[in-house]
Structures
1.
Amino acid sequence: MQRIEHIYINGEFVIPQGREWFDLHNPSNEEVIGQVRLGDASDAQRAIAAAKAAFPAWSRSRREDRIAALQRMHRAVAAREDELLEAIVLEYGAPVVRGRWMATYPADVIAQAIEALQAFEFEEHAGMAKVILTPVGVTGLITPWNSNAGFICNKLATALAAGCTAVIKPSEMSALQTQVVLKALHEAELPPGVFNIVNGRGDVVGEEIARHPDVAKISFTGSSAIGQHLIKAGADTMKRVTLELGGKSPTVVLDDADFPAVIPLVLQAGFLNSGQACIAGTRILVPRSRLAEFETVAKEGVSRFQSGDPRAPDTDIGPMVSQKQWERVQRYIRIGQEEGARLLAGGEGRPEGRHAGWFVKPTIFTDADNRMRIAREEIFGPVLTIIPYEDDAEAISIANDTDYGLSALVLGKSPERCASIARQIDSGRVLINTLAHEPRAPFGGFKHSGLGREMGRWGMSEYLEPKTLITG
Ligand code: NAD
């Protein structure tokens, strides 16, 4: 049983003013494994004041000094990879293979921020003017539970690289991961106040950060509903915002695709991170002329996906993060049946043999219509929906008939045809016959999937304000 009492302000571990203790659970057996003491609005204010005081010196620091600081951060976070893996599996229930990736990603993403900083042009010429990119100020960084450590490191490394200081409000449900990252960041010996971490509720600590006049910018990853709220909350103080939000990503299977060859990609895209991934390919668009054939192959493929103990090496899908999330997924499985979609695999309840833990059966609906709620709303669990289409034009139209636009996958034999379809899909990212990730490219969403971009020079630019100098 871990008790996490401290938050981090001005380079020190301090006890928050907030007195509420929040239970942390092991989603594999539902037991309480720890408690975290939550900060309140006054804790957020202290953290913002520390970040404000640290800003003048940090914003004027030299590129080499920032690179050195980020390198110390990278080394310290990388050294705690195994500890982080243990926290991710215990507190989040990630299967170990996925968990290992999630434990290496935080250090990797710091290395990528270093690379972006090394290559970044802070001054450019535009006609007779010199354009200087200047750090926006104190930033508020708010992260979700489905990749808490990764998002803390990505947002913080980019903000610091740009010359900003930060107050981080991590997910309250991920306090073990936050604690591991925090210990590493402390060891990196950054100047006091350049980063501060306040555990707390979204509607208390998050809200204070979102409304505070001394916070110039919010970078948020989480649900679209909270993202929309943050735009409104920040309007009075004219905050800059970067939002990485939800998705309902299409996987377009073309009529020339080799189904047995592509089905592993279809299912991996859909069940990514136990289905709790913003980029999960949850709408599978299949040519109606080959629907029955696709269903046979998909059913066979999903039967090999194991949902169970995250520590077992052959587990593909771990538990849902919380009881609330488990109930939400169950509700959508009922909704899908009520809407008239046909259950091809899975269904309500826990997988066979499991009596505790927030486990879900990998579930696939077929013969669905894109107007159904299971095709429109983000479920955030291992529930996929097959939607038949007549021709390429209809496939593109269904792919784009969504509020979201974060990621898409196109699968087919002809590279030219796939590329042509990819260009017509309204999405921040379109993958063709691959699930590869390119950290140097911008990441973010169209429409309700977000605002702005992270990663590479695009991510850095989000923390900078262009200033035009014209000399007479
Ligand atoms: P969430 O929106 O419920 O919470 C995210 C964070 O916002 C948490 O730290 C929470 O405490 C905080 N928050 C809640 N209310 C707030 C308020 N009023 N003011 C300020 N902060 C507040 O999301 P979640 O359930 O933690 O994460 C799942 C969601 O995140 C999904 O919708 C998923 O698609 C999305 N997500 C998006 C990406 C991406 O890169 N696009 C990546 C991962 C997750």
Note: The pocket of nicotinamide-adenine-dinucleotide is lined by residues 142-147, 169, 171-172, 202-203, 206-207, 210, 221-223, 226, 229, 244-247, 278, 378, 380, 406, 445, 450 (CB under 6 Å).
2.
Amino acid sequence: MGKELEDALRYGMVHPHAQPIVDLRTGAPLGMELLFRTRPGVLQGIRPDLSINVAEEVGLIDAIGFEMLRGACRLLKEPAIAGSDLVINVNLSVHQLLREDFPDEVAQLLAAEAVDASRICLEITESRWLDPDGPSRVLLNRLVDQGFSLALDDFGTCYASLLRLRSVPFRHVKVDKTFVQEVEESEEAFALCRAMFEMAKAYGIQVTAEGVETPEQRRILEEVGYIRGQGYLFARPTPLEETPALMMELQRSARRAALN
Ligand code: G
Ligand code: G
Ligand code: MN
């Protein structure tokens, strides 16, 4: 599979998709997360999370990460996106964050593409961030100084320590979909969703609920106070070429709903 991934990269078969992040109250888009995908026929039938794992093992994750950042730049030049204040989230692997020259490399890319770092949010998975061999605080702070915002992804899956959450300037946490998907049936999941929301609020960190699939989940989260949501209820990940139109459509239907 490593060979197939390598070929995909070499022959331009990486096909980033974007999934909207919306305002739960209105459905209006606030931004989007880019997700790694390959073109039809490449790595067929292989789950994207598996190919990301393999990419990490065979040392292709840096190259994939760079392609995804280029995808974000491309999207930010689309008139419908450029003229909005939508923010694009890009997932980073810890491998990228362990390279001291990573901040310079992204700075160069953004300068070459004339893209402002404030339009990009970098997502880091909780388990990797907590790892003692994980990215250094100095490096994360450098990225923030460059204008990027940071999001802690899959929040709650490893009981992130409250103190450590304070030590790094995360602007967002993303509550893992396993909690959201049980919020209707499980009192424990509900309590955790509420606790994570309150904790982030106390720290002045924005919270996004991931994996919202049903109107009832949306209603419960809204009632707790969540504003930001992402999930199949609003939109599936779609190819970048279709993303500007999707964002405009979400904007239009939110306006229509507000008028009714
Ligand atoms: O859609 P989904 O199955 O793509 O994503 C599966 C997993 O892969 C998620 O945990 C997500 O964070 C990760 N992932 C998706 N795209 C990327 C990417 O571009 N880089 C990295 N490092 N991880 C990604
Ligand atoms: O980066 P992260 O681990 O948060 O990746 C998000 C993952 O969640 C991706 O694999 C994406 O395809 C997936 N996803 C997005 N929305 C939904 C949803 O509503 N339900 C489920 N089951 N998965 C979702
Ligand atoms: Mn993510």
Note: DSSP finds 13 helices and nine strands in the chain.
